[in-house]
Amino acid sequence: MADSYRLKGLRIQLVRELQKKGINDPRILKAFEEIPRHFFLEKAFSDWAYKDIPFPIESDQTISQPYTVAYQTDLLDVQKGDRVLEIGTGSGFQACVLAHMGAKVYTVERQEKLFVKTKELLEKIGFSQIRNFYGDGYKGAPRFAPFDKILVTAGAESIPKTLLDQLAIGGTMVIPVGEGDTQIMTRIKRISADKFAQEKLSSCRFVPFLPGLQSKHSAINVPVQNVTRVSL
Q: How far apart are CA 60 and CA 73, in angstroms?
């Protein structure tokens, strides 16, 4: 896939914009400078990849605003070797940022068409180490739990207990929580087996966090049974 000096220059400009907005972690900034974000959009929209705005992608989803990706990543405080579960693979860019920082990334996508497209892309651009799953985000990835960090990239009405159960003691979850179009970015730390600390941060807007699967052969959602949610 093609890159160019002009697009590399746009990445540097984007990094400077993120710095002005308070993103100072050099590892995050380096990921944004080195990962060609235009690979995650259609070729005709390459320049839009480096504007600090969300942008539509496959299956009525969006690639998050660069600042939002950087901000959520910053809140996670990812360390090299961390096992990170991402709920909502989307374009795959967020997963690549986490992997670039040295995390072992497990990512779940409920939209089958998007899952297939993104998995192929990640393998093509050198991120085959990311483990991709087509599944219901509300179920997480229990086979690989516990996780040091969990990142949810969709707005949840409440916090799924199934995901809290998969968070390691001492681990951190970042999730947008709230009803309607606007949520509150929320950081949760697991203190012990049955104790969690919750920190409510800034308002945000994400696509809704939905249960079940959506097949590429049908626009009908396949519901999941026995979903348990909990508000801390």
A: 23
Read off the tokens for 205. Answer: 């807007």
Report d(CA 189, CA 168) in Å as an integer.
9
Residue type for position 27: R
Rg of the chain, C-alpha, whole Å: 17
Checking if the pLDDT of 144 tops 70, the result is yes
Q: Under a CB-based contact definition with an 8 Å cutoff, are residues 88 and 152 in contact?
A: yes
Say if residue 7's pLDDT is above 60.
yes
Reply yes or no: is the peptide bond before residue 146 cis, omega within 30 of 0. yes
For each of the domains in the chain, give its residue range(s) and CATH number, in order of start. 57-213 (3.40.50.150)
Beta carbons within 10 angstroms of residue 23's beta carbon: 20
Place of tokens 């990239």: 153
For residue 89, give both structure tokens: 């693979």
Give 150's contacts (C-beta < 8 A, 6+ positions apart). Answer: 84, 85, 86, 87, 140, 163, 166, 167, 171, 172, 173, 174, 175
Catalytic residue numbers, as ranges: 64
